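Good morning N.,

You mentioned wanting to compare the apo and holo forms, so I went ahead and generated the holo version with magnesium ion. This is what I fed in:
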Amino acid sequence: MSIDLAEVAKERKIKYFLISYTDLLGTQRAKLVPAEAIRVMARNGAGFAGFATWLDMTPADPDILAIPDPDSLIQLPWKPEVGWLAADPWMAGKPVEQAPRNVLKRLIATAADRGFQLKSGVECEFFLISPDGENIGDISDRQTKPCYDQSALMRRYEVISEICDGMLQLGWNPYQNDHEDANGQFEMNWDYSDALVTADRHAFFKYMVKSIAEKHQLRATFMPKPFSGLTGNGCHVHVSLWKDNRNLFEDEKGELGISSIGYAFIGGIIHSADALAAILNPTVNSYKRINAPRTLSGATWSPNTVTFSGNNRTHMIRIPEAGRFELRLADGAANPYAMQAAILAAGLDGIQSNRNPGKRLDINMYTDGHLVQDVKKLPLNLLDALRALEGSKLLSESLGEYVPAYLKLKHEEWNDFSRHLTRWERETTLDC
Ligand SMILES: [Mg+2]
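and this is what came out, ligand included:
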């Protein structure tokens, strides 16, 4: 039975709903709708001029209607009179094909046709910085090896505990919070779930962290590499595939407890890694996190080669324990929906084509990577990644209209970036 949001509003004392969708560049767009109007909006959708957001539309296109998904309702922990709803953009009676949440739902349906269900968890690293964005928010946070720094963590207790209390209230089962490897950087972990639930929570988490940071006169950023010399913001994804409540990746007889279907999925990710980077590392700045030189702390924590390993953090894919793997490629700028869709598309292809992931490597890739021959490297910049995506028949077919729309927007972004004359260019070329 469908959920009556007007009734829910009465029960939970919700005065307003935020009907929210995430566009292709990851920006969340919303209308604030009084509870009195929610019944009509839930049926017909909230109207938006699609071209005014990153959906690759023109002013000649009709309005889009964002139809809220009642199952996604999240009451803002810091303002409980507002309920957030993830919405699916529709236009002219059909779902907007390139809208990221629609893309993910399509991929989930494709997987379901084969009896598969993707479950995932995300580790969204972020910095707490000054409101002007120039510096980290805590001038005392200066250790060269600041990971798990107890004092720096506790100086931000008010912010971190407020976010964690919110997740507890929402039933996400958060289980740990820490200071990460860069000064000013934090990570908060909650339970994995179905891919769509995780994607909605990921989108909402970013909004919640930014909102609560602002309440505390700080600013939160998920930018992949906000400070050169410090570790960047990753968004590691833990992946498993299920069928009838059984984890298909688990096999106690398999190498490291991973089944052959699990290795085929990993093979799919490895096969499409350079094209995946265009979606999982979506900004010019992303490529300053992967392929980065050593940071102050001694490690970048991000991959630069398309390799997999056991419990070893220097490779793109880590198998920390039986039944799942961790993809360490994505960063804080990755679109929560497109990221899961692309991972699922590549993994399903791996299973379908029984792709071989190659040999597991157990070396320290940061120090001994040069000793291995024939290892694929990740793209060095956004343009290389976009070209790889252009060349990926698989992702073009499985992600549909999303790919040309995304490529168009991203090539515009690359061109815009390329027109900027940098200080580095002047310093290195002025005396040529
Ligand atoms: Mg981390």
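Residues 123, 125, 180, 187, 234 surround magnesium ion (CB under 6 Å).

Happy to go through it together on a call whenever suits you.

Best,
F.
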